[in-house]
């Protein structure tokens, strides 16, 4: 196993984390900014006003993107199972 292979595997793992978590995090951030602006404009500082829209929209985004996220994770997991890192020095798993 070369050090470059380990670095590449780590980079792929970080990329998968970003791809899987990205849609939910981006929607959560955008909604938080939008609700924060609306709260500052209307002077309403209730905690539930920011919490409820985030929960609803994050649930919707997860429901829409879950098939894609599942396929992406299954493909990544399958590629890791075929990885030569799991095979020992004698060629046996």
Give a concise summary:
By secondary structure, the protein is an all-alpha fold. Helix content is 81%, strand content 0%.
Record keyword descriptors for this entry:
81% helix; 93 residues; 2 helices; mainly alpha
Describe this structure in words.
Helix content is 81%, strand content 0%. The chain contains 2 helices and no strands. Helix 1 (3-42) packs antiparallel against helix 2 (47-81). The longest helix has 40 residues, at 3-42. It starts with a helix and ends in a 12-residue tail after the last helix.
List the helices and strands and how they pair.
Blueprint: H1 3-42, H2 47-81
Helix pairs in contact: 1-2
Sheet of most strands: none
Q: Alpha-carbon distance between the termini?
A: 14 Å
Order of helices and strands: HH
Strand content: under 5%
